[in-house]
């Protein structure tokens, strides 16, 4: 396997879980090992057949042998617990693509930047990647706050961002491909399931204090109260990085809601779920649904502290299909047998592959041509199953799934929609 560029760093082996719990402050070198490469990828284009002047008319960092992309996630701060898996997945995909001959016959070079869990830093680093490094694409961001900070930079400098996180919707850009779910694919479908299956009538909404949880809960409240005519008993928010949840836990015990509905993110999840358990709230009896905790976060939380909770996502590591088994095996081969894969990690893996397929369809690295060519792009070998970019809104068609957390940190998938759900980032009545 061709190595990634010299500044490529990551974790592997059994130490991975320990590093996650320490917010991933230590990094070690990438192992050079052969990787599984998805079957039936397009044929290898030869750079000699595609002159650089023909495939790069807008001054991007493309040569006859190499194309530069950026990875922009938090490897420090409270969001590192969640974002490091996305970085790893993007690097895995890029390594696999390089094994198949790269993109239009050019090897991908990675420049990695740390958003440091700070939204102005994300904007600054995005500008650097586009204006100084002339990156052909950026794979990055996690929170909606970071994406909102980066979006005007991406649009001003006409870059292309592949954004991997489930989010609130209410956005569409020529310059962004959204590989996670939007609200109608996650929030509405998940609430419909828990109301039907649990007979839920009262909800307590809890989130971290920034745009995604607040907008998501606005959508959730409208669905609970306006569509289902049920009751939200309270709605509480906490700053990113918060570790004190005793006050809201006391309110939960007082109100006894049928469902605790949570969008607490990053390292705060560790304190939240440990304090829930310490307060005697048994998630095997009290229904809790999260749309923000994946297998990645459970590494820090500890499976014993969240067992019994429900998560609504489009992907779980335990999915039983050939694509996913091969993906998880490749991920563990690169990062160690203790490695886990969550929803956003899987969606991040899709980004480089979708970009490659789009570039090859367009016959160009130019962002304007990629934006036009993105509609209808299909990746048959996605770990979650077949995915397709919507013809007009740059989101992915995907299934919704509900999993129940186990003590070992994995999820039992107990529900999935029979068909792919069409993305609708501007749902009528929820704006």
Would you kindly provide a brief summary of this structure?
With 431 residues, the protein is α/β, with parallel strands linked by helices. The chain has 13 helices and 17 strands.
Tally of extended strands? Answer: 17
**Topology pattern, helix = H, strand = E:** EHEHEHEHEHEEHEHEHEHEHEHHHEEEEE
The 3D shape can be described as globular
| Superfamily (CATH H level) name of the largest domain | Response regulator
- Mean pLDDT metric: 90
- Class derived from helix and strand content: alpha/beta
What is the count of distinct domains? 2
Q: What is the gyration radius calculated from CA atoms?
A: 21 Å
CATH class of the largest domain: Alpha Beta
Uncertain segments are 1-34
Strands side by side in the biggest sheet = 9-8-10-11-12-16-17
Biggest sheet overview? 7 strands, mixed
Task: Specify the helix fraction band.
Answer: 25-40%
Strand content: 15-25%
> Mind telling me which CATH architecture of the largest domain this is?
3-Layer(aba) Sandwich
Outline the structure in words.
There is one protein chain. The protein is an alpha/beta fold and 431 residues long. It has two domains: 9-181 and 319-398, Rossmann fold, CATH 3.40.50; 183-313 and 402-416, Rossmann fold, CATH 3.40.50. Helix content is 37%, strand content 17%. It has helices at 15-21, 52-55, 80-99, 119-132, 144-156, 183-198, 211-227, 246-255, 268-278, 295-301, 322-335, 343-362, 367-373; strands at residues 9-10, 28-29, 66-73, 107-114, 138-140, 161-163, 176-178, 202-208, 231-238, 259-263, 287-290, 310-313, 378-379, 387-389, 396-397, 401-405, 411-416. Helix 9 (268-278) packs across helix 10. The protein starts with 8 loop residues before the first strand and ends in a 15-residue tail after the last strand. The relative contact order is 0.15.
């Amino acid at each position: 396997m061709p190595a990634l560029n010299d500044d490529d760093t990551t974790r592997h082996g059994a130490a991975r879980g320990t590093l996650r719990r320490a917010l991933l402050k230590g990094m070690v070198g990438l192992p050079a090992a052969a990787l599984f490469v998805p079957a039936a990828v397009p044929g290898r284009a030869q750079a000699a057949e595609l002159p650089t002047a023909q495939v790069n008319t807008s001054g991007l960092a493309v040569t006859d042998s190499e194309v530069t992309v950026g990875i922009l996630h938090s490897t420090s701060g409270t969001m590192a617990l969640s974002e490091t898996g996305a970085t790893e997945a993007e690097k895995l995909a890029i390594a696999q693509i390089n094994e198949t001959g790269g993109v239009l016959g050019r090897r991908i070079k990675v420049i990695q930047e740390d958003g440091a869990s700070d939204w102005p830093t994300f904007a600054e680093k995005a500008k650097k990647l586009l204006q100084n490094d002339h990156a052909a694409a950026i794979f990055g961001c996690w929170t909606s706050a970071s994406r909102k900070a980066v979006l005007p930079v991406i649009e001003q400098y006409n870059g292309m961002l592949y954004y991997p996180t489930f989010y609130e919707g209410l956005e569409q850009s020529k310059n962004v491909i959204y590989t996670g779910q939007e609200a109608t694919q996650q929030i509405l479908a998940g609430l419909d399931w828990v109301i039907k299956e649990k007979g839920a009538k009262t909800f307590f909404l809890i989130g971290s204090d920034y745009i995604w949880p607040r907008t998501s809960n606005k959508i959730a409240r409208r669905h609970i109260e306006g569509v289902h005519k049920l009751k939200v008993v309270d709605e509480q928010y906490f700053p990113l990085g918060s570790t004190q949840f005793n006050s809201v836990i006391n309110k939960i015990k007082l109100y006894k809601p049928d469902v605790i509905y949570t969008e607490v993110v990053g390292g705060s999840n560790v304190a939240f779920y440990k304090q829930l358990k310490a307060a005697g709230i048994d998630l095997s009896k009290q229904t809790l649904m999260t749309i923000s905790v994946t297998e990645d976060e459970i590494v820090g939380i500890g499976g014993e502290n969240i067992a019994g909770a429900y998560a609504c996502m489009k992907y779980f590591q335990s999915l039983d299909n050939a694509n996913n088994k091969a993906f998880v095996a490749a991920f563990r081969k690169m990062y160690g047998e203790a490695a886990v894969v969550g929803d956003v990690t899987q969606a991040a893996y899709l980004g480089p592959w979708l970009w490659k397929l789009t570039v090859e369809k367009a016959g160009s690295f130019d962002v304007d041509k990629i934006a036009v060519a993105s509609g209808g792009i299909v990746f048959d070998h996605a770990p979650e199953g077949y995915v397709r970019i919507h013809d007009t809104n740059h989101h992915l068609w995907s299934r919704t799934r509900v999993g129940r957390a186990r003590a070992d940190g994995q999820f039992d998938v107990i529900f999935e929609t029979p068909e792919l759900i069409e993305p609708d980032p501007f749902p009528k009545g929820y704006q």
